[in-house]
Amino acid sequence: MKKILSVLFLLVMLFTAVMPVAMAEEMTSAAEETVIGGADEPTAIVVTEAEETKEETKEETKEETKEETKEEKPLSIGEAALYMLKGMVGIFLVTGMIILVLVIMDKVGNRKKEEE
Amino acid sequence: MGEFFESLLGNVAYFTWQQPIMWLIGAVLIYLAIKKDMEPSLLLPMGFGAILVNLPNSGAIETLETLFMAGIDNELFPLLLFIGIGAMIDFGPVLNNPKLMLFGAAAQFGIFFTLMMASVCGFLPNDAASIAVIGAADGPTSIVVAQALGSKYLGAIMVAAYSYMALVPIVQPPVIKLLTTKQERLIRMPYEQKNVTKTTRILFPIIVTMLVGIIAPGAVALIGFLMFGNLLRECGVLNSLSETAQKVLANLITLFLGLTIAFRMQAHEFLSPDTLLIMGLGLVAFIVDTAGGVMFAKVMNIFSKKKINPMIGACGISAFPMSSRVVHKMGLKEDPQNFLLMHTVGVNVSGQIASVIAGGLILSFFM
User: Cβ of A83 and B98 within 8 Å?
Assistant: First the structure.
């Protein structure tokens, strides 16, 4: 179990190392696309302002994202590989946390039994 | 007389050459469902629906569109189906040996590998991501992701997902044999039965929902409905609701789901080279998923004192309970005294959870 935990710990470290870079890239590109994606200037300004102030409703975001997605190009291999890394690290992170909670619950349960 | 025949057979003029091809596809799906017993509850309605919507000027299209808008466009049917699936699943083997969940996670590699392959093939990010989720080997997750991302390939994705789920006994064994030695396939894994408390069983669905929800908010609906179904099962005070979810609800939704999906199987949408490409990518997803689980088990063997039979890693593909049965039978074939069933079931249900997490992460990335 120690080995598993150490591997999980390494994965968490990797995750924390990769995520900020990836998220920064994503946020920058998303912001650029929002401005460029607007057909007319007022729309672009309104959308950018809304993003800055974070006052968009979820529905609006969803619609805009769908519109932007349609205009997007296929992912490059590098981008897809980055998503692959983020996805696998994310899955292992969530799974690792679930395992950790289950192990803790098991130990607490065993201790109670021993006390009884 | 001429007018009479014209009114009677006038509709024939609206035939297109693609429609008989779709009838053939529908007939193949019905054949596979009835004769080969391959996911009959879904392939049969889908096959019949494919014929229904591809008759010239079909009056069924409007009805199916209404069902589609009411149940799939808003992701209601797959989510309700998840309550039934959750109520059917016994997470006991995972709670007995939590580290089995790692195999479920590893076997989702195929999803992300396919995302890369679909991007290389020129699919737009939303379509590539939707195609990749075929690798979740989980119909409802595929529907939710494809619909939420607005993919135009929903019909093809569903046909690929359910066909390959039914083809697990054909797809998985060669991949497993290719990646393992005879010695590895003979590894025995004694099963140590622990007493999993009722509290653990009740807390498990709640904790999983919370953890997944915090990290992958896109997966909350999926995992939440699945775990709600499981909570109904495990709480012990709602047995009638649990039984309703397992039988009546799951059957009703499945009935409508297959027919409704057929709305997206109209010839002009379905018959394109992209559909063939999606079928190919779906196969890649299943193969790489299987390989991911097996290879992860082999890596675990390097660190672990207790050796793991790498075949069980393949069950992380989800496709519950088909995959666990397949691997269990493979184990028995190699050694009639090697009972892997409890381990394979544990990995298989872990795959169910991990595939939902993967779907949620994909949604978080692309929405």
Answer: no
Write out pLDDT tens, residues B128-184.
Answer: 999 999 988 888 889 889 988 989 898 889 888 887 887 888 889 999 999 999 988
Q: What is the DSSP string of A39-90?
A: SSHHHHHHHHHHHHHT---HHHHHHHHHHHHHHPPPPPHHHHHHHHHHHHHH
CB-CB neighbors (< 8 A) of B365 in chain A: 83, 86-87
- Interchain contact, B200 vs A80, CB within 8 Å: no
Relative orientation angle of helices B154-166 and B125-132, to the nearest 10 degrees: 20
The boundaries of the domain holding residue B69 are 17-91+105-168+194-285+352-366
C-alpha gyration radius of chain A: 21
Between chains, do A92 and B211 touch, taking CB under 8 Å as contact?
A: no
Q: Could you give the ipTM of this predicted complex?
A: 0.84
Is residue B76 one of the residues assigned to a domain?
yes
The pTM for the full model equals 0.77
* Cβ contacts of A95 on chain B, cutoff 8 Å: 101-102, 104-105, 350, 353-354, 357
